[in-house]
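Researcher: Let's try something more involved. This one mixes different molecule types, so please make sure each is placed in the same coordinate frame as the others.
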Amino acid sequence: MHFTSEQRFDDGVLEREFTLGEIPGILWTPGSASASAPVPLILIGLPPLGLHKVYSRVAGRARFYAAEYGFAAATIELPGSGERPRLAALEQARADLRRAMQAGEPIGDEIVAPLVLPLVDLAVPEWRATLDALLELPEIGGPVAYEGGVISIGIRLAAVDPRIAAAALFAGTFVPAAMFEEARRVTVPLQVLLQWDDEANDRQAALDLFDAFGSKEKTLHANLGGHTGVPQYEVDAGARFFTRHLK
Amino acid sequence: MHFTSEQRFDDGVLEREFTLGEIPGILWTPGSASASAPVPLILIGLPPLGLHKVYSRVAGRARFYAAEYGFAAATIELPGSGERPRLAALEQARADLRRAMQAGEPIGDEIVAPLVLPLVDLAVPEWRATLDALLELPEIGGPVAYEGGVISIGIRLAAVDPRIAAAALFAGTFVPAAMFEEARRVTVPLQVLLQWDDEANDRQAALDLFDAFGSKEKTLHANLGGHTGVPQYEVDAGARFFTRHLK
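Model: All components are placed in one shared frame. Result:
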């Protein structure tokens, strides 16, 4: 992990861009973080839009977690997104999705699975390698939570990596049928966000997914509005969920 | 409104029992409340079990709101509950419900409407009279929120009384079909609690009710577990919802 830039904000939060091999990412740590007082970590999963496009939203959340709740937060660019090399299979799957949507066809698993599963297969090992590197930093302790992004990546990561102690997931992207089985193997405390009128996401499928999770403690927060309308107060609700489970 | 007892706790909260005509109730005010710094008010609706039976749970919430967030909180006994005179029509409706449940029959609107609508018709004017009296106290200012209890009472009260600025409702009791129309007339910010595995409440009906509310800002918090299993952290989530809308 190489740090390529750093910036200290007025609220004490340190923002550092890094690369891990070919993966670009950003790490935010609170002013209070030090080798003698390491802090818990929140991994922020991105949508497949490119880090630059979602920077202000993600950095706003990360700095809030750091400044108000004393968490470190980190994010990495998804495979095939932003400045990273395009992946032919993903580009094809996205083209197939666009074509189906424009034609008004139902979006079935034959569209969703090729769109999501290869991304999960690539992204989860990258997240785990990033987590290895982050946990070597003396100012970061643990436990670790995951939030945001492509929900299937969060499901796989929470199911396979025992270092993930809690997850706040956004039910805002297509979930392949195969991921429902993996959801049953997730047992950490969960907070699941659902936009009640999400144009791009089926409400009943999201409720079925919430039902499928194996976790004993799981909470669904459904808010009125479309895909991009997650209310600002859910950031605070997320921070309080993490505080219950990471501190 | 006559105060019949008072008790000051270590956290500064003052608990006063009162009667308003034949209605017994309890008012909690924070140590900080005074005529010069009146505080917002949360009305806590009870289940039809009698105040004594639910006192510790309700007082725990009320004292948390008062001590941690500086709200006043008040509750009143429902018509036909606790020490109040039994109401023949309600007793009959409850007997019909018990019989239907024991027989394993589906609980339709012909059971639910006589059970709930007379209670709503009686309780809502009592709440409004209580609110009149509470708002005359110099230490209570406003705005006012409603939480808890028989959800149909909260729906009617929020729909008809413009002093109710926000409501946190527990979708844990039967809702007559007629109340879905009234729900459409509720426009204040809402937080709706749903127990995902509530033995006594139909999940789909609760989701349909959430959908029916006319409010532009509404959030559903669904938690795993049965009717009595609402997690403790939802009290804090409620307090933060009220803080957003009452302060």
